[in-house]
Write the structure tokens for this entry.
Amino acid sequence: MLGLEKRDTLLLIVVACLVTFAPILLNPFPADSSMAQFNAGYPDLMQRFVIFGIFAIGFNILFGLTGYLSFGHAAFLGVGSYSAVWMMKLLTMNVIPAIALSVIVAGLFSVLIGYVSLRRSGIYFSILTLAFAQMSFNLAYSVLTPITNGETGLQITLNDPRILDGAGAPSYPNLFGAQMNEATTLFFGGWSFTFSVGYYLCAVIMLISFYLAIRIFRSPFGMMLRAVKSNQQRMNYTGLNTKPYTLAAFVISGMYAGLAGGLLASMDPLAGAERMQWTASGEVVLMTILGGAGTLIGPVLGAGFIKYFENIFSKINKATLEGWFAFMPDGIEEFFVAIIYPFVGKGWHLTLGLLFMMVVIFLPGGLVEGGQRIGKMFRRRDRKSSDAELSAAQQRQVPPAE
Amino acid sequence: MSIFNPTRRGLIQTGVVAGAGLALPTYLRADAHSGFTNAPTGDTVTLGFNVPQTGPYADEGADELRAFQLAVEHLNGEGDGGMLQTFSSKALEGNGIMGKKVQYVSGDTQTKSDAARASAKSMIEKDGAIMISGGSSSGVAVAVQGLCQEAGVIFMAGLTHSNDTTGKDKKANGFRHFFNAYMSAAALAPVLKQLYGEDRAAYHLTADYTWGWTQQESIQAATEALGWSTVNDVRTPLAATDFSSYIAPVLNSGADVLILNHYGGNMVNSLTNAVQFGLRDKQVNGKNFEIVVPLYSELMARGAGENITGIVGSQNWDWKLENEKGARYAGTNAFVQSFGEKYGFPPSQAAQTCYAQTLLYADAVARGGSFNPCAVGEALAGFEFDGLGNGPTLYRADDHQCFKDVVVVRGKENPENEYDLVEIVEVTPAEQVTYPTDHPMFAGGDLGECNPGA
Amino acid sequence: MDAILLQLLNGLDKGSAYALIALGLTLIFGTLGVVNFAHGAIFMIGSFCAVTLSKIFALSHKAAEPSGKDFLGNPKYDDVLYITEWFGEDIGNWMIDWSVPLAILFAIPIMLLIGYIMERGLIKHFYKRPHADQILVTFGLAIVLQEVIKYFYGANPIPTASPEALRGSFDFGVLIGFEPNAIIYPVWRLVYFAFSALIIGAVFAFLQFTTFGMVVRAGMADRETVGLLGINIDKRFTIMFGIAAAVAGLAGVMYAPINSPNYHMGMDFLVLSFVVVVVGGMGSLPGAVLAGFLLGIVESFASMNEIKAIIPGIDQIIIYVVAIVILLTRPRGLMGRKGVMEE
């Protein structure tokens, strides 16, 4: 189907189903129960899941296939966000031109940075990309304030020109009138499920991006990129100039990042300089490695994992904990609260750090490998069918050529 | 423990039982028809406290969260009532807000506008928060204020000092109790004149982002009005940790006052570096070299240690205010008492502003008779009150900024403990720090219409 | 002229911090081939060794009689320091005053131990793993370390004073024939510079003139061959890891009086130290030191008002501009070896 192999089609369908029903799947607990804290099925977080999924998918096209580790990809996301917000300020609140511009600008920006940075490889390449991104961040925060609005971030205001929008046009990002923050909530017993316009727009774009990523992975182009990863020198000896291929991969992943940035700005019309900081670049690296670099679905899982902790664990406070353990006798309750408290709320970083270490120690192939191990326990029958994801995960295990 | 003696656990259990009663199947709840976002249903109302819990301002955030918890307790009629006893408005009865028990959710802003908005959004979308409060930086405050305006909830700003929050970025749904850069400068000017004279040359080091710029602009205007000259204004990168290369040229520049428009970690480091370079011990133009830090923060003063001795700055509030300056600042001691009893140390100005904001919000709901943000906004706009520790205060209707006295402080010579680092030099009355709404430093913004959301 | 000399001094001082951190990082990065994102955290822990020691010295018990009232009106008891009780007023106060230099003695064994445990317990298992996995695990470790520090010490910076005698500033200009007050420099920063030079010299001497150092250098160049000669290179590399941690830790201890330590100071230095190491060239110790000083000096000069007036905001980006220029003109940084982390 759609030019995909059977296995990939299946993967795409599974992802499509998961994404479509995410508002239900991510809200497994009734809204009034004390476990509702762990529900992630609200529009903002779901949007972040898929948007950072797109970001990580794109990053993986560069890193997973070519092995080039960029430490400056957040710059493209930031540039995308700024272009989108400017489009919404100047032209129209419709998100289509905003997103289109963000992809284009990020693409151009990545041609520039990629062309320079790809003159070096390995750690030298990483530091070059890092340097460009940090420069962008520092300038956006201070000197470029007239364009970026500095620390506060670029916002839309009532008196922006918006020359294409008529008097009655919506004042919030919209898709031909359907505002991104519109949502319907369905109540079912104690459960409530929110279906928002913004999320489904992101979801559709994410599925398209995912489909394109599969096509790239399976194409001769993708093959060439893998060849660059395994031995670039040999490629050069055979008379092949690898640079156009790596540059193309760099620009494609930069455009994915720009798309993610444009979507972020469309869901919430604000573009902040922090989006370009090295920590943000580092985050997408972590997402990709955590999920499983070089696999198709891994980066998306990694993105979801990190964003879940950032948004859910940071909100658990002492009162919440006391609520959970209220059924216990006083002393034991306090004991449990005291033990768990350092790991939640203001300690959510600690939990995240520990989980990074555990995943990389026990699941060398990332979360994808974890999923596969679980899968294997349940179905031993089709062991001989070579799983594409597993092979990618195993491929990473081979130490790099010294 | 006797069952007649309600424990915290007991109260929570009661709450859980009461909550279970609400979990009955409802296919369509009332909030779709209430006319505003997150209208409280049932007998509880949820407030969202969005404070930095990670990053350099985590301790300040923790102090804000303590104050919020205390405010919630007092609103629900637990504890000793704190400032509710002294607050001039008596609309709050200690039975929650309009009979609804107050609950809260907390989140982490990370002092990044992006993360702060994500956290505030989750409070609004997931937890049904009707008001968002807290924060420790102006960038975050402006970003979250914009979000609350779009979403149709009230934003009660925490610690935010930039002129822009109630200047060019003001919003109808946003309210600020904390003072701002202009007020700091206006309050400091007379004290600086009195301490250091009218003939001074100032050298500015300014954090290179919007708050720093408004602070610098304000203090430069105020000091130049005194007759001071400005030798130089040097912008320092936000990420700088070592300010030596910015401090080193100061001594030979001809300036005799160094003004550090820095906050937080920047302020701790730049001040420490300035003292290392021996600026405090030098004489320039026949006068002692002086350092001024326009915005003080207790936590950062603690970080700078004994380097703050004798350094003048301004604060929104100080916990010794009522003891030293009399009953005009009633409420201060009541708050310090209940905060100190609960946590064992005195509150910071960040804690006080957050506590006051929570009470002010609750009171406005009670007086306006509705949780509708427009009704709340109407009740707060132009509201004059007293007894929240800052003396008589006005919430100005035109820009939603509070006008009250500003405290000018100085680093203490021999602090008794780590919470008693500053002494109050002067309290500049509210009239002197009041400015017209169309003042150029605040121009360009528009409150817009209040937005009740859905 | 004096302004330029002053900034040169500043650059050397900043550079000595960069060089020390980069030196430790390059020992790990260049010798063991491990991308250690926890290196900044080790620097931070070094600083907190100084904080911890001064906290230990400040341990106290309450006096028997109340001396007044506290802010809530309850009776207040003065603190009596154990250290003055045990060692007498004079020695006790001297120890408190000199707690930062004393913390060096305290930090060396602790940092060696931390380095040893890190290598044996964690890093050892990652030599053969892709660099990506090393990044993830060491980044996780860095977060855990800094959160642990935050849990015990809070997020606020903690002032840590240098000894009274080394506070204040020193008129450097007079020594070289300038007007008084032309070039004034803080004493402690001069101490820091001298200390760094000492450590850097010691590390180089150790690698150059001891058999141990020779073997390690041989192992850096060709690990396999050294192993084939029957030398247990792994054990030596473990020790090198400990030494690298100690170098970073000492850099941290002495840095504490310059800027009050806080739990995320390691992250502030992390990116910069990677830039320094890579600009210096992978696997080259002199390169790391050279790049550290170079970037420190360039950064200081860029923050001069005269230069900022020409190019606004140049001080924000100068380090990255220099890094890009060097990496584009010299493919392996200043003194990099071929084939290290280039794949």
Summary: The first strand of chain B starts at residue 44 and ends at 51. Residues 1-33 of chain B have pLDDT under 50 and may be disordered.
